[in-house]
Amino acid sequence: MMSLVDWLTTELGLSHEQAIASVTQAFRKGKSLQGIIEHLIEYPLPLDLNFRLKELQRFEWGIRYGLDVFTPGIEENLADQILYLIENLVPMRLCQLHRIIPISMATYSPIPGRLYHYIVRVAMVNPDDIQAEDDLGYQLRRRGYELQRLAILPEDYERLFRMCTNEQTLREHRQALQRAYEANLKLKEERKALQKAYEIETRIVHSQPKELVDRLRRLQRFELKILYGLLCVNLDWKDESSDQIFDLIETLIPLRVCQDYQVIPIARLRNSLSSIVQVAMVDPNNLHAQNMIEICLKPHKLALQRFVIPINDFRQAIDAYVERQNLKRQGDL
Questions:
Q1: Coil/strand/helix, residue 100
Q2: pLDDT digits (tens, 9 = 90+) for 47-80
Q3: In CATH, which of 2.70.150.10, 3.30.300.160, 3.40.50.300, 3.30.750.24 is domain 215-330?
C-alpha cells in the first residue's frame, strides 16, 4: 500500500516537506489531517480523495500506535451504546478532557472455559497519553473492567462526540416533554377531583343544616392550613372586601389567569418597604401558577404573598365576579 506521504505528494501535489510536516502535525498534535491539507491547497477535498485519505491515515495510525483504529460505521444503536457507557462507566468530563470515547463492552477468557474478563473498548485520539490511560484505568478498574485502547482520528472523534451530545440533548428533551405530559395529566386528574369535591360539597350545602355545613367548612380550612402551612382565607361577600377583590382582578390578575390557575387576588398591602398582593390559591404548590402570578405583578413591582382557599370558595368568588360583570353590561351597576 502506498504510504500516506507519497499519496499526498502524488495525488494532491504537496511537496515532500509539506506532506511530512502535515502528517507529523496531525499525529503529534491530534489535529485533523484533512483540515491541515485543505488549508494548504485552499479548497475542500472531493469525497473520493477524502475517503482515500482517511483510509491511508487509519492504516498508518494503526502502525504508529500498534493498535486497531476505530472506524465509525452507521450502526443504528451506536449513539445509545456510547451514551450508556458514558453515563455508567466513563464520565463525559473525562471524554472531553482527554478526547476519548467509549465504544463497546466485551468479555474474553484468557483460558478457554475459565473465568471471563470484562473489557471496555475506548477509542483515543492520542492512545499514548499516559494521564488519560491512568485516569481511564482507574475509572474502569474500580468497577471491575479492563481497558482495551483503540486509536481514532480526530475528525472521527469529533463527529462521534457531537452525535452523542446531540442524542443526549434529544433524550433530555424527550424526557422533559414526558415529564410535562405526566404533569399535565396529573393536573387534569387533580382538577377532576376538585370538581367532584366541589359538586359533592354543593350537594351537602343544599341538603344539610347550616350548622353542619359551617362545621364542615371550618374543618376543611383547618386541614388545608395544616397541609400547605399557609393561612386559609374565609371570604365574606357581604363586606367591602369583595369590591377590592373585583378591582384587583380588573387591574392586576385577569379573570382568565384566575380561572386557568385557580387563584384569586384578595388584598393589596402597602408599607414603607414594599407593596404586597395577597393571592389565595387552590393549590399553593403549583409552580406554574406562581410564575404566572409573578408575571402579572412584575410590571407593578408588587410582591406575592400566598394563601390557600377551598375550591368552593374559589368558585363562589369567580361566579360572583362574573355575575357582577354581567350586571355592569346590563347597566344595573
A1: strand
A2: 888 888 888 888 888 988 899 999 887 666 788 8
A3: 3.30.300.160
